[in-house]
C-alpha cells in the first residue's frame, strides 16, 4: 500500500518554514488563557487580522475550521470508507458514522475512482466547494487503501481542493506520515474521554492487532492512541480539530478535562457536539434511553471550555456523503447515476473568479458589522440575548420562516453578535400551508431566543411566536446578519433602558433528537 503513495510529493515545505508554522500554532495555544482581548483572536470566529497568515491561509475557506467561512464555502464528503475498527454506543452500522454525521443512511458507498469523479462533478457545479472530507461511513483509517487512493486521485485532478480527514484515532499513529505526505492538513479526531473508566461506558470494544478487546483495556488503548496521534500531527504542523460527543451523565463533566488535554497537545479547535439519540436509530444509547443534552446544557459546557480554547459551534453533524454548505444537503443532486451522465467541466480559473466574488461579499459583510459595532461603543450593560436567524447562506437574513430547516443562533451583547449554535427544525410550511405541529417544534427549538429574524413570515406564525415571547423580525430581510443583529440589540437596549419593554430571561430549548429525513 505504501508504494502506491510514493508518487505524491510531500510538500510540507522546507524544515525552517515548518518550524515557523509549528511555532505559530504553538503560540496560538496561548490564546484565551491569559484573559483579556486575546481570547477573541483565536478559533472559528477569528478573521484575517486575528491569525498568523499561514494559519489563516489554511482555515480561511474551510467551512468547519472557520465559522466565518461556513456562511460562504461548502464541503463535500465521499463515502469510501465503510469499515470501522471500534464500536461506539451511539453508532449503528446501518447509519452514517455518528462522529461526523446525522443518523441517516449513506445513500451509496463509492470506489475511489467514483469518488474522484464525484468531486470533479461537484467542483464544477458548486464553485464555492473548497474542501473534500473523508468521514466514513466507517473510519477512514480503518480503510486506508481506499482513503489514500481517493486523496491521491483528487490531489492530481483538483489541486485547489483542501483535503480533510476525520477519524476515531485508533489507527492514527500508523498513518501520520502518509497523511502528511498527501498534504492532508486538516485532521479531526473524535475524542470523547481521556479516562478509560468513562471510555468503557462509551466503547464496548475495539479491534486492535487482530483481536477484539473490550472494557477498560480497550478504552485505555484507544485514548493512548488518540493522544499519541494528535501529538504526532501537531508536531508536523497539521491543523487538528477534536470532536467530542456530549453524553449527559457519562462524559459531560469530563469533557472539560478532555478539552485541557487536547489543548495542551496543540489541537486547534474543539467541537463539542450533542449526542443525538432516539430508539429508532437502533443504537445502544438510543435503545437504553440515554438522552442527549438540551440546548442550554450544550452551550454551558461549550462556554465553560471556551476559557481554555475556542470552540466550534457551527458543526452540523453531517452525513458521510454530505455535499454543500454546512446547513444544506445537496447530496441527492450528485448520485452516481446522475454524475455518470453529467458533463464535468472542472475549470480552475472560473472557480477562482467565483471565489473572489465571494471574498468581496465577505469583506463587505465584515465592514458592515464593524461599522455597526462602532455605534455600540461606550454602551455598558450586562444584558445578553439570543436571537434565531433564518438564512440560506452568505451571512444574510435571506430565508422565509416557513422554509427554514434550521435557525442559526447568535448571542447579542454590548460586545457585538456572536454565533453560538444552530437548531434543526421541521419545515413549518408544507406545500403552501402552515403545519401547526411543526410550529410547536420550531418554537421549542428556539425557545431560548428573544427574537427570530426572517426574510418573510405569515400572520399566523407571527402571532404564535409573539404568544411564546419570541419577537418575529422581518425588517432586516436580505441584510447582513451580524450588522442587523447589532442594530436590533442597540434598539432592544434603548427600549429596556426607557422602560418600554422589560428584559426577560428566556428558558431552555430542545435539540432535535429524531432521525433526520432529507427533504
Ligand atoms: Fe468533513 Fe469533518 Fe473535514 Fe468538515 S465535516 S471531515 S472537518 S470537511 Fe464539519 Fe460536518 Fe461537523 Fe465534521 S460540520 S460533522 S466538523
Ligand atoms: Fe460508528 Fe464512527 Fe464510532 Fe466507528 S467510529 S463505531 S463508524 S461512530
Automatic annotation (TrEMBL):
- Return the Gene3D superfamilies for the record: Aldolase class I, Dinitrogenase iron-molybdenum cofactor biosynthesis domain
InterPro entries per the UniProt record, alphabetical: Aldolase_TIM, Di-Nase_FeMo-co_biosynth, DiNase_FeMo-co_biosyn_sf, MoaA_NifB_PqqE_Fe-S-bd_CS, Nase_CF_NifB, NifB_C, rSAM, rSAM_sf
Q: Name one GO molecular function term.
A: 4 iron, 4 sulfur cluster binding
Keywords in alphabetical order: 4Fe-4S, Iron, Iron-sulfur, Lyase, Metal-binding, Nitrogen fixation, S-adenosyl-L-methionine
- Cofactor field: [4Fe-4S] cluster
Write down the SUPFAM superfamilies for this protein, in alphabetical order: Nitrogenase accessory factor-like, Radical SAM enzymes
To which pathway does this protein belong?
Cofactor biosynthesis; Fe-Mo cofactor biosynthesis
Chain ranges of the Radical SAM core domain: 70-319
Family stated for the protein in its record = Belongs to the radical SAM superfamily. NifB family.
Q: What is the documented function of this protein?
A: Involved in the biosynthesis of the iron-molybdenum cofactor (FeMo-co or M-cluster) found in the dinitrogenase enzyme of the nitrogenase complex in nitrogen-fixing microorganisms. NifB catalyzes the crucial step of radical SAM-dependent carbide insertion that occurs concomitant with the insertion of a 9th sulfur and the rearrangement/coupling of two [4Fe-4S] clusters into a [8Fe-9S-C] cluster, the precursor to the M-cluster.
Question: This protein is called what?
Answer: FeMo cofactor biosynthesis protein NifB
Q: To which species is this protein native?
A: Methylocella silvestris (strain DSM 15510 / CIP 108128 / LMG 27833 / NCIMB 13906 / BL2)
Amino acid at each position: 500500500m505504501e508504494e502506491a503513495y510514493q508518487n505524491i510529493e510531500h510538500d510540507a515545505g522546507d524544515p525552517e518554514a515548518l518550524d515557523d508554522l509549528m511555532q505559530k500554532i504553538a503560540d496560538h495555544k496561548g490564546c484565551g488563557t491569559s484573559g483579556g482581548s486575546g481570547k477573541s483572536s483565536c478559533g472559528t470566529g477569528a478573521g484575517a487580522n486575528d491569525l498568523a497568515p499561514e494559519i489563516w491561509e489554511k482555515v480561511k475557506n474551510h467551512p468547519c475550521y472557520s465559522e466565518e467561512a461556513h456562511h460562504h464555502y461548502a464541503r463535500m464528503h465521499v463515502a469510501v470508507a465503510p469499515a470501522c475498527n471500534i464500536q461506539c454506543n451511539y453508532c449503528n452500522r446501518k447509519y452514517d458514522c455518528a462522529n461526523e454525521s446525522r443518523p441517516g443512511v449513506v445513500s451509496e458507498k463509492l470506489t475511489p475512482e467514483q469518488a474522484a469523479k464525484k468531486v470533479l462533478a461537484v467542483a464544477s457545479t458548486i464553485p464555492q466547494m473548497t474542501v473534500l472530507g473523508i468521514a466514513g461511513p466507517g473510519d477512514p483509517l480503518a480503510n486506508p487503501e481506499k482513503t489514500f487512493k481517493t486523496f491521491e486521485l483528487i490531489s492530481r485532478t483538483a489541486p485547489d481542493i483542501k483535503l480533510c480527514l476525520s477519524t476515531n484515532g485508533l489507527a492514527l499513529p500508523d498513518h501520520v506520515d502518509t497523511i502528511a505526505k498527501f498534504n492532508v492538513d486538516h485532521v479531526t479526531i473524535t475524542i470523547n474521554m481521556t479516562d478509560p473508566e468513562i471510555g468503557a461506558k462509551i466503547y464496548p470494544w475495539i479491534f486492535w492487532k487482530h483481536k477484539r478487546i473490550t472494557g477498560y483495556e480497550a478504552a485505555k488503548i484507544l485514548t493512548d492512541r488518540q493522544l499519541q496521534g494528535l501529538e504526532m500531527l501537531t508536531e508536523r504542523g497539521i491543523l487538528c480539530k477534536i470532536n467530542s460527543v456530549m453524553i449527559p451523565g457519562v462524559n459531560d463533566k469530563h469533557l472539560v478535562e478532555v478539552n485541557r488535554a487536547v489543548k495542551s497537545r496543540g489541537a486547534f479547535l474543539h467541537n463539542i457536539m450533542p449526542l443525538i439519540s432516539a430508539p429508532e436509530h437502533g443504537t445502544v444509547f438510543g435503545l437504553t434511553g440515554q438522552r442527549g443534552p438540551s440546548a442550554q446544557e450544550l452551550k454551558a459546557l461549550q462556554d465553560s471550555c471556551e476559557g481554555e480554547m475556542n470552540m466550534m459551534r457551527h458543526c452540523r453533524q453531517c452525513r458521510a456523503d454530505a455535499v454543500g454548505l454546512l446547513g444544506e444537503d445537496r447530496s441527492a443532486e450528485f448520485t452516481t447515476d446522475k454524475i455518470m451522465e453529467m458533463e464535468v467541466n472542472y475549470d480552475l480559473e472560473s472557480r477562482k473568479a467565483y471565489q473572489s466574488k465571494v471574498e468581496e461579499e465577505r469583506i463587505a459583510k465584515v465592514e458592515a458589522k464593524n461599522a455597526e459595532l462602532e455605534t455600540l461603543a461606550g454602551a455598558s450593560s450586562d444584558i445578553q440575548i439570543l436571537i434565531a436567524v433564518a438564512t440560506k447562506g452568505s451571512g444574510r437574513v435571506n430565508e422565509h420562516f416557513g422554509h427554514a430547516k434550521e435557525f442559526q443562533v447568535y448571542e447579542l451583547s454590548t460586545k457585538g453578535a456572536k454565533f453560538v449554535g444552530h437548531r434543526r427544525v421541521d419545515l413549518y410550511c408544507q406545500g403552501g400551508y402552515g403545519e401547526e405541529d411543526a410550529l410547536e417544534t420550531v418554537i421549542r427549538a428556539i425557545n431560548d431566543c428573544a427574537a427570530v429574524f426572517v426574510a418573510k413570515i405569515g400572520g399566523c406564525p407571527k402571532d404564535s411566536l409573539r404568544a411564546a415571547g419570541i419577537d418575529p423580525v422581518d425588517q432586516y430581510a436580505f441584510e447582513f446578519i451580524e450588522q442587523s443583529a447589532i442594530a436590533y440589540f442597540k434598539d432592544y437596549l434603548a427600549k429596556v433602558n426607557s422602560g418600554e419593554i422589560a428584559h426577560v430571561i428566556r428558558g431552555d430549548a430542545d435539540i432535535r433528537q429524531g432521525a433526520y429525513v432529507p427533504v
